[in-house]
Amino acid sequence: MKIGELASRTDVPTRTIRFWEGEGLLSAPARTASGYRDYDDHAADRIAFIRQSQTAGLTLAQIRQILDVADDGTPPCAHVTDAVAERLAEVDARIAELRATRRHLQSLADRAAAQDPAACEGYCSIIQPG
Question: Which domain holds residue 122?
Protein backbone atom coordinates (compact mmCIF):
# COMPACT_ATOMS: atom_id res chain seq x y z
CA MET A 1 0.00 0.00 0.00
CA LYS A 2 1.17 3.53 -0.70
CA ILE A 3 1.97 5.92 2.11
CA GLY A 4 -1.29 7.84 1.72
CA GLU A 5 -3.31 4.66 2.13
CA LEU A 6 -1.22 3.67 5.17
CA ALA A 7 -1.77 7.12 6.64
CA SER A 8 -5.54 6.85 6.15
CA ARG A 9 -5.65 3.33 7.54
CA THR A 10 -3.65 4.21 10.68
CA ASP A 11 -4.82 7.81 11.13
CA VAL A 12 -1.18 8.95 11.19
CA PRO A 13 -0.04 11.76 8.88
CA THR A 14 2.31 10.83 6.03
CA ARG A 15 4.86 13.27 7.42
CA THR A 16 4.92 11.33 10.71
CA ILE A 17 5.28 8.02 8.89
CA ARG A 18 8.26 9.39 6.97
CA PHE A 19 9.74 10.76 10.19
CA TRP A 20 9.38 7.42 11.98
CA GLU A 21 10.96 5.71 9.02
CA GLY A 22 13.89 8.14 9.17
CA GLU A 23 14.21 7.53 12.93
CA GLY A 24 14.40 3.78 12.41
CA LEU A 25 11.04 2.96 13.96
CA LEU A 26 9.71 1.71 10.63
CA SER A 27 11.77 -0.26 8.17
CA ALA A 28 12.25 1.30 4.78
CA PRO A 29 9.52 -0.18 2.62
CA ALA A 30 9.89 -1.71 -0.78
CA ARG A 31 9.52 0.70 -3.68
CA THR A 32 7.25 0.41 -6.67
CA ALA A 33 8.72 0.62 -10.17
CA SER A 34 7.80 4.31 -10.17
CA GLY A 35 9.57 4.89 -6.83
CA TYR A 36 6.60 5.10 -4.48
CA ARG A 37 6.86 3.56 -1.04
CA ASP A 38 5.03 0.22 -0.91
CA TYR A 39 4.14 -0.74 2.66
CA ASP A 40 2.87 -4.15 3.74
CA ASP A 41 0.22 -4.87 6.38
CA HIS A 42 2.93 -5.31 9.03
CA ALA A 43 3.67 -1.57 8.81
CA ALA A 44 0.14 -0.73 9.98
CA ASP A 45 0.51 -3.06 12.98
CA ARG A 46 3.87 -1.50 13.83
CA ILE A 47 2.41 2.01 13.60
CA ALA A 48 -0.42 0.97 15.94
CA PHE A 49 2.18 -0.27 18.43
CA ILE A 50 4.16 2.97 18.17
CA ARG A 51 1.05 5.06 18.78
CA GLN A 52 -0.03 2.95 21.76
CA SER A 53 3.48 3.22 23.20
CA GLN A 54 3.41 7.00 22.81
CA THR A 55 0.02 7.10 24.52
CA ALA A 56 1.67 5.32 27.46
CA GLY A 57 4.23 8.13 27.51
CA LEU A 58 7.20 6.18 26.19
CA THR A 59 9.81 8.15 24.28
CA LEU A 60 10.74 7.38 20.70
CA ALA A 61 14.10 6.10 21.97
CA GLN A 62 12.38 3.67 24.32
CA ILE A 63 9.99 2.57 21.57
CA ARG A 64 12.90 2.04 19.17
CA GLN A 65 14.66 -0.14 21.76
CA ILE A 66 11.54 -2.25 22.26
CA LEU A 67 11.10 -2.65 18.51
CA ASP A 68 14.78 -3.57 18.10
CA VAL A 69 14.45 -6.28 20.75
CA ALA A 70 11.32 -7.63 19.08
CA ASP A 71 12.94 -7.46 15.63
CA ASP A 72 15.79 -9.62 16.94
CA GLY A 73 13.23 -12.31 17.75
CA THR A 74 13.34 -11.83 21.50
CA PRO A 75 10.08 -11.25 23.37
CA PRO A 76 10.35 -7.59 24.48
CA CYS A 77 8.14 -7.83 27.56
CA ALA A 78 11.03 -7.58 30.05
CA HIS A 79 12.28 -4.49 28.23
CA VAL A 80 8.74 -3.05 28.16
CA THR A 81 8.42 -3.71 31.90
CA ASP A 82 11.61 -1.71 32.53
CA ALA A 83 10.50 1.13 30.24
CA VAL A 84 7.08 1.32 31.88
CA ALA A 85 8.63 1.33 35.37
CA GLU A 86 11.02 4.10 34.32
CA ARG A 87 8.20 6.18 32.85
CA LEU A 88 6.03 5.61 35.92
CA ALA A 89 8.86 6.86 38.17
CA GLU A 90 9.20 9.95 35.96
CA VAL A 91 5.45 10.63 36.18
CA ASP A 92 5.47 10.16 39.96
CA ALA A 93 8.37 12.61 40.27
CA ARG A 94 6.57 15.11 38.05
CA ILE A 95 3.39 14.76 40.14
CA ALA A 96 5.41 15.45 43.31
CA GLU A 97 6.95 18.49 41.63
CA LEU A 98 3.52 19.77 40.55
CA ARG A 99 2.13 19.28 44.06
CA ALA A 100 5.01 21.33 45.51
CA THR A 101 4.39 24.02 42.88
CA ARG A 102 0.68 24.02 43.74
CA ARG A 103 1.43 24.45 47.47
CA HIS A 104 3.73 27.37 46.67
CA LEU A 105 1.16 29.00 44.39
CA GLN A 106 -1.54 28.53 47.03
CA SER A 107 0.64 30.32 49.58
CA LEU A 108 1.13 33.18 47.12
CA ALA A 109 -2.61 33.32 46.47
CA ASP A 110 -3.28 33.41 50.22
CA ARG A 111 -0.71 36.19 50.63
CA ALA A 112 -2.29 38.11 47.73
CA ALA A 113 -5.76 37.80 49.25
CA ALA A 114 -4.53 39.15 52.56
CA GLN A 115 -2.53 42.06 51.13
CA ASP A 116 -3.76 45.53 50.44
CA PRO A 117 -2.78 46.29 46.81
CA ALA A 118 -1.80 49.81 47.88
CA ALA A 119 0.84 48.30 50.18
CA CYS A 120 2.67 46.56 47.34
CA GLU A 121 6.39 47.33 47.41
CA GLY A 122 9.37 46.54 45.18
CA TYR A 123 8.63 44.34 42.22
CA CYS A 124 5.77 42.67 44.04
CA SER A 125 5.54 41.97 47.74
CA ILE A 126 3.30 38.98 47.08
CA ILE A 127 6.23 37.17 45.51
CA GLN A 128 9.01 38.95 47.44
CA PRO A 129 7.68 39.67 50.94
CA GLY A 130 9.54 42.41 52.74
Answer: 75-130
